[in-house]
Amino acid sequence: MLVGTEWIIDASGCDPAALRDVARLRAVLESAVRGLDLRVLGEPRWHAFAGEGGVTGMYLLAESHLTVHTYPEWGVATLNLYCCRAREPWDWDAALRAALGATAVGVRAVPRGA
Amino acid sequence: MLVGTEWIIDASGCDPAALRDVARLRAVLESAVRGLDLRVLGEPRWHAFAGEGGVTGMYLLAESHLTVHTYPEWGVATLNLYCCRAREPWDWDAALRAALGATAVGVRAVPRGA
Fold first, then answer.
1. Pick the CATH number of B4-112 from 3.60.90.10, 3.40.50.720, 3.40.1490.10, 3.40.50.1260
2. What is the pLDDT of residue A1?
């Protein structure tokens, strides 16, 4: 039984400073939340790792979840968007190039529950 | 740059009552947390959807994240374990058959950041 689709997004070549900037990462995720009409349950969780470390963000959605983990040391951001209801694909390529300076963005759509 | 591995786990044929039982689902995830020596940051988030709906659980980890979403109406549980550090595979097949009555468990290992 197919219960949803998970988009697995890996961006590389990003600006390390952007990958440590919670406000900027939050803006990226919240743009997708608005654009895809997702419903956030409770408060999103954000965690900035110490020193030169990256950031984790987790949104619990009525539609499942949205997460980001960043690795400034490698210029990499990885996101997951799991939707248990049909959604158009989001233009992660454009969003992550514009907001984080990504030079390559890979998006895989993984059916869930099958 | 490979920054981690995500295990995508889809279990079907589960007992619908188990898929609405937060305590039982919590025990499944916490067994994996202990067995894999994962470090949970802050309080896990659990949300039981209204009526005959399922349950969502989200753990923010020092190693990335662990999530579960259940669909009692379809007998399906879907989990994600994303680890940015090397970990042995967990025996999700045995764990989900024993705890949820799953009759089939699929596990995919997805490299992240590549």
1. 3.60.90.10
2. 87
